[in-house]
Each structure stands twice: as C-alpha cells, then as structure tokens.
Design a protein that fits this description.
Helix content: 10-25%
Number of helices: 4
Largest sheet: 4 strands, mixed
Strand content: 25-35%
Radius of gyration: 20 Å
Number of domains: 2
Length: 187
C-alpha cells in the first residue's frame, strides 16, 4: 500500500502552489487542465489535477464550482524523520516563506527536534527528527519506569512494563519508535 498523500483543492492557485511545493521539496510535477479533462465546472485553463512526485508526494487542483477550497483545523501533516535533519530544516524554512512559524523548529526536552509551520496555502506542517544515539538524547528510552517520548512523560497509560527499544529501532521516526515499542509484546 502506498502512503496517504495530500490532495488540496485550492481557490485558483493550484499551479502556483505546485511550483511552490516543488521549490520546497524538489521532485517532478505534472498538470492537466479542466479543458484536457473535459471539465466544464471551471475555466478551461484551471488545474484539474496536478501532481508532485518525489521526497514528498502531493496533489493539487483548482476548486471547481462544487468543490470546497482547502481549509483545515486540528490537522497537521507530519514529516517526522522523513529526511535527513539538514533537509528537514531547509524544508521548514522554505515552508515558512509567506507563511507563519507556529512553533520554531528546536531541540525539545525529550531530545528530538521539531517545530510547526503553516505555509502560505494554510497547510500546517509538523517537521522533526531524532538526534543520533546519544543516550541523553535518546527519545526511545524508558528511565525510572517513565516514558520519555514526544514530550509526554509519565508511566504508560496501560500500566504495562515495556522493554527498552534498541537505539537503532525507529531512530528516524517517533512513530516508528512507537510501532516498535508496541509490537515488542510483553517482557
């Protein structure tokens, strides 16, 4: 199964957005117009379907007469460990151009770095990464019966005892760390 990808219906800015996202993430783009798709619910030159394929895959279109343009509340697109830290920092800065830094990309108390940025099209991105295998920055460790992961501390909610996940398991993604921990079974 392929990973889910964003598909944004935009208010006449799909071509501009596709160019912007290609500038941020790289990759290859393609577009088809309303006229090429035989659509009559918008201008013939409007983007009926645009794709970005690369490190980040996404789709855009100009909203038609019956499409609601993109808006979101309570939703983030997570790029946690999706690339090397240098690349993620570059993406964060590029997404901030014309947008808003909601929470700066910075090192957190639990050892990883993350931040949130809302881009000029209204998409809220969560970008983050783990730091090496330094035990003081190991976000997958359990110390004194308390979990230190993604800013959440305290005993496990289910009262279970979990084994320490080896440093090389899920080192690039907090989600991978959680999957590895939950699939390790009882001690």
């Amino acid at each position: 199964m392929t990973a889910p990808a964003l598909y944004l219906h935009l208010p006449g800015t799909a071509a501009e957005a596709l160019e912007f996202y290609q500038g941020v993430f790289g990759g290859e783009t393609s577009t088809a117009t309303y006229a090429e798709f035989g659509r009559t619910d918008g201008p013939g030159s409007a983007v009926a379907h645009g794709t970005l394929s690369g490190a980040v895959d996404l789709y855009v279109s100009d909203a038609g007469e019956h499409d609601e343009p993109f808006s979101a509340r309570g939703l983030m697109v997570a790029l946690l460990g999706a690339a090397e830290p240098t690349t993620l920092r570059t993406w964060f800065a590029a997404l901030a151009e014309g947008g808003d830094v909601v929470d700066p990309l910075q090192r957190r108390d639990w050892g990883a770095s993350d931040g949130q940025v809302r881009d000029r099209y209204g998409v809220l991105w969560l970008i983050g990464y783990e730091h090496g295998t330094d035990p003081t920055a190991d976000a997958t460790s359990t110390q004194g019966g308390h979990h230190h992961h993604a800013g959440v501390t305290g005993p496990p909610a289910d009262g279970a005892q979990h084994r320490r996940v080896p440093d090389d398991v899920g080192a690039t993604s907090p989600a991978a760390s959680l999957r590895a921990r939950s699939s390790s079974g009882p001690p």
